[in-house]
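User: My collaborator sent over this chain with a note saying "see what the structure looks like." That's all I know about it. Can you take a look?
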Amino acid sequence: MENRVIFHIDFDYFYAQCEEIRNSKLKTKPVAVCIFSDRGEDSGAIATANYKAREYGVKSGIPIKFAKSRLKDRKDAVFIPADFEYYSKISISGMEIIKSFADIFEYVGRDEAYLDVTVKTNHNFETARHVAQQLKNEIRKKLKMTCSIGVSPNKLLSKIGSDFEKPDGLTVIKPDYISEFLSQLDIRNIPGIGKKTESILAESNCKKINDLLNMDVFELNSRFGRKTGTYIYNAARGIDLELVKEKQPSLQYSKITTLKENSKNYEFLSTNLLNLCKQIHDISIKNNKTFRTVSIQFVNEDLTIKTKSRTLKKSTNNLGELEKTSMQLLIDSLNEQELLVRRLGVRISELSDLEGQGDITSYF
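Assistant: Without extra context I'll predict from the sequence alone. Here is the result:
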């Protein structure tokens, strides 16, 4: 296991880069891809922004009106409504290129994937560097896009590495370089560590990953629980035993609506959710699909996202089953919900008749 060679590939500012492919004149301008709601011209949130827009503090998740305010001095700033069907087509093409370089291919999302290339590189990290560069060149040649790649002995380090020199980065973390590489990074560079965990650790003057080495696993477990504490302890040492597992993009259908008012009232949300279930069910019937997993999604008033899912014992296309499962997920979600909900969505996945398909046609 310690001799594995793992890639994490992450497309740079994916949605905005897709728009730059469609219109090359955008490359010199600040570009923000927006998810508009129906509450007014500037209502909604930023899906992603290119690096010129990020220089002004425009980033994913912030309200569109805030982004426009930050770019008010850039008369050439461009705000584009998200076109997920187009982005899906680009993603499929990109994933086909990436998959051709893999011993084992694990699809993560429309703009990222893990590869196990241990056999292809004969366990050699210098060979892996060349293979990764070839992959980047192929994506640039065929898609006119850039991506960043992390190369290391495991998934955790490769994910950290792909984010290290964005955009268009290539970071190789050989086994004998792990400690030195991690010692220079902040705690927030560990995937999954957010502001809350960071602030708790800061109370112990723990700000760098190197500082975590002074905390034993029992202390971390007492603060964060056994699962999270053990993860942080291992991550600080570059330890990750999770294998790259074969996973392909899967077809899913989803619908989301912006609520007429922010709310966490069950009756109000359930009425909207039942309407979404009917729309999704109509799509599944039209396409002759059954489903096995049902998910609901909240976009909260602060634009954070919350998702709950349930996998059924067997596939179905029964509307009553969809409604019943969605309502139970809604009840479960509201039991621990503090913020008001701004947008509400429902999704069905693990669809039947997917053999041989690699299509992605619908996203939240």
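A starting point for your reply to your collaborator: The domain at 1-154+162-172 is CATH 3.40.1170.60 (MutS, DNA mismatch repair protein, domain I).
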